[in-house]
Amino acid sequence: MKLSFVIPAYNEEKYVGRCLDSILKELRDSDYDAEIIVVDNASTDGTRLAAEKYPGVKVVYEPNKGLVRARRAGFLAANGDLIANVDADTVLTKNWVKKVIYEFSKNPKLVALSGPFIYYDLPKSVDIFARVIFYPLGLLTNFINHIIFRRGTMLQGGNFILRKDALVKIGGYNTEINFYGEDTDIAQRIGKVGRVKFTYRLPIYASGRRLAKEGFFTMAARYSLNYFSMILFKEPLSKTSIDIRDTPSQNFKEYKPINKRKEIVMAIIVLSIVFTIIFGIGYAGYKLIIKSGAVISLIENKEK
Question: Could you count the other beta carbons within 10 Å of the beta carbon of residue 245?
Answer without folding.
Answer: 13
